[in-house]
Structure formats: C-alpha cells, structure tokens
Amino acid sequence: MFIPRDGHDHVTSPVEKTSAHGRTRRMAxxxxxxxGRLRYELAxxxxxxxxxxxxxxxxxxxxxxxxxxGYGLGVAATAGLTWGGLKFKSPVATSLxxxxxxxxxxxxxxxxTGPSVPSLIAGGVVTIASYAVYxxxxxxxxxxxxxxxIKAAKTAPLPDGMGVNIxxxxxxxxxxxxxxxxxALVALGVPAVDVSRIVFTDTGWHALVTLPPxxxxxxxxxxxxxxxxxxxxxxxxxLRLSEGxxxxxxxxxxxxTDPLAGPGIPWPGVGVTSIEQPIPIGIYPDGSEVLxxxxxxHVLIAGGTNKGKSGAVNVLAGNLVACDDVxxxxxxxxxxxxxxxxxxxxxxxxxxxxxxxxxxxxxxKSEMTRRGxxxxxxxxxxxxxVKKWTRKHGKYIVLIIxxxxxxxxxxxxxxxxxxTLMQVSRAMGIRIIAATQSPSEQAFGxxxxxxxxxFGVRIGLPVNEPTPINMIMGTGAYGQGWRLxxxxxxxxxxxxxxxxxxPNEGRCFWISEGQILETSxxxxxxxxxxxxxxxxxxxxxxxxxxxPTPPTPPGGGGPHGGRPVLRAVPVYPDGSRIEENRLPLxxxxxxxxxxxxxxxxxxxxxxxxHHSSISxxxxxxxxxxxxxxxxxxxRSVVFVLSAAQHTPAGETxxxxxxxxxxxxxx
Length: 666
Ligand SMILES: Nc1ncnc2c1ncn2[C@@H]1O[C@H](COP(=O)(O)OP(=O)(O)OP(=O)(O)O)[C@@H](O)[C@H]1O
Description:
This is FtsK/SpoIIIE domain-containing protein. This protein is about 40% helix and about 15% strand. The chain has four domains: about 40-150; about 175-255, Gyrase A, domain 2; about 265-530, P-loop containing nucleotide triphosphate hydrolases (Rossmann fold, 3-Layer(aba) Sandwich); about 580-645, Arc Repressor Mutant, subunit A (Orthogonal Bundle). The protein is built from 19 helices and 18 strands. The chain is of the alpha/beta class. Helix 3 packs parallel to helix 5 (about 90-115).
C-alpha cells in the first residue's frame, strides 16, 4: 500500500502530530481511547484491581483489630445477600452477593497480607470469577440494546430521553457528538455496531463507524444518504463521509469551521526552481501545501464552469516558467488564447486553433522520437540502458492544453496523436497538463482512445453534480469520498496522485493578473535568445545520419529540438482549408502564374499520373471562379489560377517564413 510521502493521513492534523509534547500526549490519548472503547469489558478487572490496591493501602496504613471485625461483618452481610438471593430465586441479588463476597474477601486479604502472593492469587480468582458471571450478562445486554436500536429504527424516531442513562439499554455515546451520531444512524436505519472515540481537531471532529450487517448497511449505502444523515445529526457544520479500510466501515467527518473559506488565498509567488521539485498550488486546512509532482505523470485539471481551472493552470504555469529545466508549450482553445496568452513570451509555441494545435503535437511527437533515439544511445554506470529522462539529459517539455474537450471536439483526429504522446512521452521528459470543464468520455477521445488513464495526477475542482466525478478522479472515486460536488467555493480542490491517495479538500492559490504579468515578464527569455533558449544535449547528436533524425517542422526547430514554428494553414480564397492531396496541384498552379498549367505538365511534374484524374478538382475550382481555362497548349487545356492573390503569402513559395498569425516566436 502506498504511504503518502508526507505521512499525512488527511484526518489527523500533522500539527497535532508534531506538537511539543506530541509523542507522550498521543500515547496517553491512545491509551485513554482504548480504555474508553473497552470500558464495559474492562469494568470487572478495574474494580477488582482498585479494591486490591485499597486493601494494600489499608495494610500500609496499619490494620487495627476492629478492622478485622469490619471485614468479617462485610463478608457475613454479602454472604447473607447471596443466600437470600438463592432462597428467593433472585438472580440479581445472587450475582450481587457473590460479587460482593469476592470483593470484600479480596480486599481483606490485601489488607491483611499487603502486596503478596496470596493477595495476588485472591485478586486473580475474584477477577476470573467475576468475568464468568459478567461476560454472559454483557453479551445478553448488548444483544438487547442492539435489537432495541433496530426496532427503534424500524418503527419511529426515538422517544425523548431514551438511552440517556447508560445503566439502561439505549442509544448513547461517550460524548454529545457520539450520541448524536449514533441516534442519527439509528434513525437512518443503520445502527452502528461500534463508534470509535471521536477525535476533535481544529476544524471539527471525525470518527470511524462500524456498520451492521444487513441489506442496505454498507458504507457506500450510507454515503448515498449523506444529506439525510446530516439532517438527522442536527449538528452545525458540513458532514463528509467516506469509506473506511473495510466496506462496513464509515469515516464520518464533521467540519465545523472552514479555514479555507474567504475570497481566496493569494499566490505566494514562485516556489520551485526545477520541475523535479513538487509544485505548491494551494493549501490544505491544516496549513500544509497542496503539492503537484509533475515529474510523476501527466496532469488533468477538471471542474465546472468558473470553478478555478484557469487559476490552477496559471499557478502551475507561473512556477514552470521559473524552472530553468523546462520548455513550455501551449494549446489554448479559447479564441485568441485568452488564458495562456499572457505566458506567450515564456513558451516555445502557443497554438490557438486546431491547425496550429496539430502542428504543436506533430512537433512534440517528432521531439519524442528524437529523444527516444538519444536515450537509446546512452548507458548507465554498469552499462545498463537509460530508460528515463532527467534534467541532466536536457530540458523537460511541458505542454499545457487549456480546454482539452474543445480541442478534441474541433480536431477529433488529434486524439490518437495525443494518446500516443501521453502513453509514450513520459520517459522522454514530456509532460502534458490538460484542463477541461466537460470531462466526458468523448472529451478524452472516446472509446479506444480514452486518454484519461494516462493522467497520473488529477486535480479535481468543484462540479455542479456528482456525474462527472468518476470521470475526473477515476472509477469508484465518488463512493470513496472524492466528493467534488461538495466543494463549495471556486478554487477548492482535491488532488489524486502518488502523493495523495485519500480525498482531502484543499484550496488553490489565487493568482492575480498582475502576478501573472509580473512573473511572465521576469522569466521571459530575453529578445532573440528566446528562440535559442534550448539547452543542447550534453552529448553530440546521437545520429549524424540525416535519415533517422526526426523531422522538425520545416523552417523551424532549433538544433536538437528547438522551438517549433507554427505555420499558417493553406486555404482557398474563401477561407476553407486546401485538402492535403490537392495542395501540390494548387501550388503548381500558383507557381505557373499567367502561363498556366496543362494536365500533361502536371503529370510530368509528378503531381498526378495519367490514370488519376485531376479534372474534377480543376472543374470545381473553375466553377468557384478561382481558376480559368485560357486556351490550349499541346492539345491540352491550359488552366490559370486567377485567385493567386488570395492565397496566404507564407504558403506560396517561401517555406522558411513564419505565419504572421502564429509566429514561432509566440
Ligand atoms: N483559487 C481561487 N481562489 C479564490 N477564487 C477563485 C479561485 N479560483 C477561481 N476563483 C474565482 O472564480 C472565478 C473563475 O475562475 P476561473 O476563471 O479560474 O474559472 P474557470 O474554471 O477557468 O472558468 P472557465 O470555466 O470559464 O474556464 C475567478 O474570477 C475568481 O473570482
């Protein structure tokens, strides 16, 4: 089982654990808790031990002759009670008489002999005898009490005052809260078999309830009735329920104060210098930081509209731009890259539409291949193969995708590309941080290409209904207490990762626009250096042969995988995209200019062959008015592009030019 690195169990405050008298206090508390839980079982042993000690005290103080008389009278009286009980067939009087005889005798022996073997033997005999009588009584009483609770649950709310006196069977606990909890469970029809002693913390209290066997008494079933239980409990605070270590164990937490409430927790500024350090994105109620280990896996940030996704993305971006071992790239599907725009200068590429997004992914894939080949040439100290990228191999690449669902909706074809990247790229030092507000299966590429499994770190923000919770946090998460629907403020979050395996509510820092701009400015590479701000591999390129060198986008890609150039997409004069297979013909027409082009010439240029027909395309373009038939050459029709001026300049002949709309220096 995974043990969280900070050893924080998310229930007991670590502050509590590490306080000055921590260890002794915790031990004393544990003993008290244990005694409290077993109070009924321990009662006879405690009584016998107490009376033996009193006898020894009497011995130490000196036993006067009159005391012997007193003890004698005591034994006679209790023996008389026993005899009367037997005679009048009163089990209570008989039991009481037997117990009293034993106790008085034991005390008398202790008083006469002091701490001695006979006294210990007497104490032992009395203890064993008392348990012989007590255990059957205790079992019977518990059965009766349990049956009473079930009966009460089946019939109606409990009558007033029921079980207030612990001498009577009834629904009671050690504290007011435990009694309320027990009664609330009874009213729900699920009387607790056991309630651990309630632990009070700075923010409320928690207890572990063992549920009874039955038809609808599992922890999951009770969790589903949380609202009813909260109403039954009738205590101020927010009730949280999660499954314990076993299916019949319910962890009940009542939060009475919320230290995370308020307008927001200001971002304290950059907290890391390397991506290999955990990035703090917020805090937990006990004051510990919510840490994200990007090196551990791809990161998913999901939540409802206006619940703080961009805030979380920006806090991560703000830290990543300050890491000198990271190259940042972005895909922001909000038109104009509204969210990631401020980090433009800190990124090697920022795409804001499906086409440029495709190019970023192609670049990443080629970079992944190149890095894989590079790693394959390396050997460890014992000649072993190197299978994991670290900062000594070069910079990590982090791709931030804002609105993942929108990307896959607008460009469904990139789903498989993304899947490949997510599955393979981690070992090559590439990480993806994806934010989305509609985490449906479709939003992750649909069946077969569902990328969700690849997210090792998941940051769940508030959602409006429970349905998407399992989509975000994983199968069964809702029942295990990942209640994103109960997060009541924007920016509140639950993080699931190798570090955090149990649900715990935290709150992300709030980063202001001013902080974003300031951080971006402070860490943006200076001027022209930006394009070259790529640390070359410590070794020469592993494969000097140009063939296996992974392709970098034409005109872009610095040495050893520099920044990609995002190019404008070739379009027809009406703005629609020129299909891949028709592009060579269109280009050839552009190049031919007023001279025009015949089909024979196109065949000779290798654009098509005699069997493939380009006529329908040309007819279509003629119909659109983009191409004209100007006569015949060598008995073939000459086609002239009459709309060349409409074609984006960057796509005509000069491959090295950047797109004005999406330059490499973005
Ligand atoms: N960590 C936070 N602390 C306090 N308030 C926050 C926090 N995060 C978000 N908010 C509040 O919620 C609002 C919306 O936040 P944000 O834009 O990050 O949400 P979003 O989920 O990205 O929105 P969208 O669904 O439009 O993408 C913010 O304007 C701010 O008032």
